[in-house]
Amino acid sequence: MLPISDLDTLLRTLEPQLQHGTYVYVLSNETPDFNDVRVVAAIRETEGLSLIVEESYAREKCLNAFFECAWITLTVSSDLAAVGLTAAFATALGKSGISCNVVAGLNHDHIFVPVHQATLAMHELRALQQSKNHSS
C-alpha cells in the first residue's frame, strides 16, 4: 500500500488499534536482543539507550521502568513526510488530558499513552476519525 500524505485522508482512516499488554520506557546500558519481540523501540541518547519494551522484559532484565504505558498503533499507512497528523491527534488527546509519546515507523505511527488512560485515548482517537468522516 502506498503511504498517504493527505491529512484529511489520514484522519478519516486512522483506525487506531490498541496493542495487548503493558509497555514501559527504560534506560539500558546494554544493547538488547532486537530479535526479542518484547523490544518495541530504541533510541540512543547521551544518557544511554532509551527503550520501549514490554513490562515483562523490563522485569526479566531488572530494568527500572520510568513510564508505564499502553501502545496504540494507527493502522493507516502514513507517509513520513505527511504534515499535521501528529499535531491533530496530539491536540485531540491533549484536550482530554492525555499525554502521548509518538514513535513513527516506516508504515505507521505508534502512540504510547499512560496505561490507565488507554480506553479514553482510544475513544478520543476514534472520535477524531469519526469527526473527519462526518465532515467530508
Automatic annotation (TrEMBL):
Instruction: Tell me the protein's name.
Output: ACT domain-containing protein
Taking every annotated instance into account, which residue ranges of this chain make up the domain DUF2241? Answer: 4-69
Residue ranges annotated as transmembrane are: none
Report the Pfam families cross-referenced here.
ACT_3 (PF10000)
Supply the InterPro entries for this chain: ACT-like_dom_sf, DUF2241
